[in-house]
Amino acid sequence: MMILGDVLSAVEVARICECLSRVPFRDGRATAGPAARQVKDNEQADGSDPEVAALARLVRMALERHPTFHHLVRPMRWSSLMFSRYVAGQRYGLHTDDACMHDEHGWPLRTDLSLTIFLSDPDAYEGGALRFLSGNSDRSFRPAAGSAVLYPTGLLHEVTPVTRGVRLACVGWVQSLIRRTDQRELLFDLECVRRELPEGQARLHLDKAIGNLLRMWSEE
Q1: With respect to CATH, is domain 2-176 assigned 3.40.720.10?
Q2: Taking the CB of the first residue and of the last residue of the chain, which one, N or C, has fewer CB atoms within 10 A?
């Protein structure tokens, strides 16, 4: 689980929020699985609208250029990105995301990682925290607008009730080139070490090790 700051600039956040103020929204339960549908109470922008599709492309490009995202996630397939809206009284109760979805082209997608990009400034609404329960751990997030929370799909989580204002977010799912979480974490740790090394023999050997691990663990 990780927070990536400044995925979207303030200008990009303002542009997205302004566009979302005029595009059509629909009941969010239309895109929930049978169990999640019982606890989901929000609205989602109509993904077939050209403006919404353009916003989704903007967000994906921002994620792909983020210096940490690629080496942390190593994306192979993406779901369509969706924009959600919560107003006072709405929430998304405890649930787990579906293990299998479809990618942007309609092909099967194994959901390895989930992401939520916050679009509303935390001072503009109350409640609406992204809360995770795992064993004895209970963690909640309300980061700055433009920040993303990445987490392994399958964690029990919820969006707590919004009590004031409007909470806007973008959500999506990714199938990673590396299925196992521990292997992705090891590759990410090695990449962080690599960035600190000067050009030379040690870095070349580390490049070789990372490349061989990718060949060993990657999936088509």
Answers
A1: no
A2: C
